[in-house]
Amino acid sequence: MTERLTTRCCIAGGGPAGMMLGFLLARAGVDVVVLEKHADFFRDFRGDTIHPSTLEIMYELGVLDDFLKRPHQELSVLKGKIGDDDVTLADFSHLPTHCKFIAFMPQWDFLDFLVEKAKRYPGFHLKMQAEVTDLLIENDVVVGVKAKTPQGELAIRADLVVGADGRHSIVRDLAGLEREDYGAPMDVLWLRLSKRPSDAAQALGRIQAGRLLVMLDRGDYWQCAYVIPKGGFEDLQRRGLQSDRRYTEAYIQSRAGRGFGPRRIINELRQRGVAEDLIDAGMETCEVDWQGLLATVRHKKYGVARPGSYPAIMKQSAFLKYRGFTNDQIRKYFRQDSDDGQ
User: Fold this and answer.
1) Which residues contact 91 (CB under 8 A, 6 or more apart)?
2) DSSP string, 70-93
């Protein structure tokens, strides 16, 4: 059976653009529905930077102080080396804004914050696991969308439909809107390096002989961007600089660092065509405390308080399974949690 809703504005995509728009519209008294196809915001992102202009908007909305209470890093000066010379690449201290720095925050924390503030307004409605599949069109006018959810089909009529569903936007494709691709002369490899206590606590750009490496301080690791010529990734693979073994090891560490469990990571590696022996070797040699990671992920989602009922345990277990933890790991956690509480 199809569920039917009516709203003023329907936004497809619960990323930063869609969620901020939903927040602003609800704040202005406009009834809005935001559709997000995933079950949560715990996904791997490259864009974890919040720029001074965005922070200024937070100030104007009266939520900056609350926002900055969330765990984050701040960068006011970007230093680098061009050849052997130390230079200041960017200095944000002169900006005419309240925050004279770039903030680094995991995007899921940023989105959770926007949702928290938006839910204060009765006109804001967020539907997770709701993926747009089609547009509702009457007399050549878009009047809404259809979406699939775990409960069945959802049909939403709206005065305005906004496609904020990313670079592969289904809304754009369904509407027949043409995309202009301006291209780029380079590709960027993203990777992470472990951080030593002796490392300088600052961002660093290194430019030398046509090469560019940027290192961003993310607290306990460096987030690195290495610029290569457009289409140059295959050449790196041929030279053995990007081997399947190195890729597997880095992928496991990266996804575990984002809070994903071993079962999901293994399935993702298989989908990427990584050989089973490399997956097994990578999982065996990785230094990840899966039980500790499971506890951290659960605490982040539900808080440190123990679930007080069997349905609550089942709900949290389903979430942890979605994150990719095994049944044995989940049972061990709740059994140990129960023993500790006795």
Assistant:
1) 76, 77, 78
2) SS-EEESEEEEEETTEEEEEEEGG
The CATH class of the 290-341 domain is mainly alpha
Reply yes or no on domain 243-288 having CATH 2.130.10.10.
no
Q: What is the mean pLDDT of residues 38-58?
A: 82
Q: Where are the domains of the chain?
A: 3-48+106-175, 243-288, 290-341
pTM across the whole model: 0.68
The domains spanning 3-48+106-175 and 290-341 adopt the same CATH topology: no
DSSP code of residue 182: -
Buried b (16+ CB within 10 A) or exposed e, 51-65: ebebbbbbbeeebbe
> How many CB atoms lie under 10 A from the CB of residue 138?
9
Q: Tell me the one-letter amino acid at 318.
A: A
pLDDT of 342: 41
What tens digit of pLDDT does each residue of 35-44 get?
A: 999 887 776 5
The candidate with the shortest Cα–Cα distance to 38, out of 328, 323, 339, 326, is 323
Superfamily of domain covering 3-48+106-175 = FAD/NAD(P)-binding domain (3.50.50.60)
Q: Taking the C-alpha atoms of 101, 102, 108 and 109 in order, what is their torsion angle to the nearest 10 degrees?
A: -10
pLDDT 10s digits, 126-157 = 999 999 999 999 999 999 999 999 999 999 99
Contacts of 35 (CB under 8 A, 6+ apart): 10, 11, 12, 13, 14, 127, 130, 131, 132, 145, 147, 156
Q: Which of 124, 130, 125 is nearest to 145 (CA)?
A: 130
Q: 325 with 296: CB under 8 angstroms?
A: no
What is the C-alpha separation between 302 and 320, in angstroms, rounded?
11
Q: Is 164 helix (H, G, I), strand (E, B) or coil?
A: coil
- Say if residues 116 and 108 touch (Cβ distance below 8 Å): no
